What we know:
Elements: E1 19-23, E2 26-30, E3 40-46, H1 57-74, E4 77-83, E5 87-93, H2 99-117, E6 130-133, H3 137-148, H4 150-153, H5 168-172, H6 174-180, H7 184-191, H8 195-207, H9 226-240, H10 244-247, H11 253-266, H12 271-278, H13 282-295
Antiparallel strand pairs: 1-2, 3-5, 3-6, 4-5
Amino acid sequence: MKSRDCQGDGSFDISPFFIIILHRGGLMPRKARILSESEVYHVMLRGNERKDIFLEEENKQRIIDTLLEKRKKSGFSLYAYCVMNNHAHFIIRTKDEPISIVFKRIGTSYAYYYNNKHNRVGHVFQDRFKSENIADDKYLITAVRYIHNNPVKARICQSAMNYKWSSIDLYLNYEKGLLLLPEISDVLSIFSDDISIAKTKFIEFSAQISEDMFIDMDNEDKKMDRDMVTDYINRYLEEIKLSLDFLKKRENEAQRARLIKELASVSGLSGRQISDIIGINRETVRKVIVSYCQKNRLLDKLSPLDK
């Protein structure tokens, strides 16, 4: 992977070893975080109890400012970020400090601000941060695309280019972005050494519809109720300009399968529940979900009723 040496919440674990936590009345070890050989990570911070800790624009700007401030002190590179209402994604490359210390600093700083602003005490983030290792250039650009398209996946906007609270604008406005995050040139150079060509290819790649799977809000944490699912479906139908009745027709199989896969990914519902809500044959829904999970190696995530 190309590299460049660019320059209170108690819920963060800063130890690389096992810690003991209470679990169902007993004790169990928490596994040590596996460190990335490339030192590049996709990291997600989540609001405690799924609360909207970044709901206001001031909150979103604060976590971005905190990230940039700690970046100067900790020496890590920041390749991409996206701040949603109740969670945020980051792609960083560590340098002088391990990832656990980096996000201990970021989490503690933001928690102090948030608790002080809202006159509250207690945890702001859920558990310790989640992370996954990024091993190579292909994985890196795919992860960047994934987090930039988080608002599209959530149907907040139709294009990642229109979302204010992600780093995609820094890529689109390269000269301005380079001043704030010089390391974005590392990502663009994966596409081409010619910056003009690299930007064009980056935009085309970012706009591609994909089924990339990375860490995100866990299904068990975010089960939608019927009203939330209905609202999601209505926004989807509005986007593709079809009614639910027309979606069920044979000629709209691709759009129907896409909706089923999205609901299986974001709602936390079983195939049977999805079938009941959208009024599509249970076996049809089951086949779409099984195919989706096989393609993305997610068979362990299937509901027993969908296997």
